[in-house]
Specification:
With about 190 residues, the chain is an alpha+beta fold. It is about 25% helix and about 25% strand. A five-stranded antiparallel sheet has the order 3-4-7-6-5. Strands 1-2 form a two-stranded antiparallel ribbon.
């Protein structure tokens, strides 16, 4: 059995499991694969996280110059950066991808990676945990509260400082303040 027996394999795979990617305003047919299980990333750049995403496509349908490391593909209205590119004997590219917003934003001179600020993009309101923790620490510093002050009294003291607690339910405040109190007691 020679390689000519598989000449239609890539086309058939692209038709059966087709997921188009946009690269340089060109639609590239291929297959998109997301492995939701935790995978080992080895010595690959940080930021790959635990979700492995790959895009497979026939080399014959990708316009030249071919995509390289750092290029981006748009799949399912999401921008992905190519972090590795492999080729096989059948003429297929395998691009290992990372979502663009999960990439590294800054590198310090020591080589430690630090993420930049991330805007709130999820459902619901953005968290106010940091604001609550700041007011809690300020009240502790001013000796308005102590580690033995009951949580309902702490809420009554902090609520006016939090803009009358707009958007903050007692349940939310109890959860956040309770965690702060427990952390202070174990410290």
């Amino acid at each position: 059995m020679g390689m000519e027996d598989f000449q239609y394999l890539l086309h058939d795979l692209a038709v059966a499991f087709r997921e188009d990617a946009m690269w340089r305003s060109v639609r590239v047919p291929g297959r998109f694969y997301v492995n939701p299980l935790e995978v080992g990333t080895g010595d690959i750049e940080p930021g790959l996280g635990t979700t492995e995403s790959k895009f497979y496509c026939d080399r014959a349908v990708v316009p030249k110059p071919w995509p390289t490391l750092g290029d981006t593909l748009i799949i399912r209205n999401q921008t992905y950066e190519i972090v590795t590119r492999d080729e096989d004997d059948l003429g297929e590219f395998e691009f290992r991808l990372i979502k663009q917003e999960l990439g590294i934003s800054t590198v310090t001179s020591e080589g430690a990676y630090s993420p930049g600020p991330t805007p709130h993009n999820g459902p619901g309101r953005p968290t106010r945990r940091d604001e609550i923790a700041t007011h809690y620490a300020a009240a502790m510093g001013a000796r308005l509260i102590s580690p033995t002050t009951p949580i309902h009294e702490i809420i009554a003291i902090l609520r006016p400082r939090l803009g009358n607690g707009q958007g903050l339910s007692d349940r939310t405040l109890r959860k956040i303040i309770g965690g702060l109190v427990r952390a202070r007691q174990t410290a």
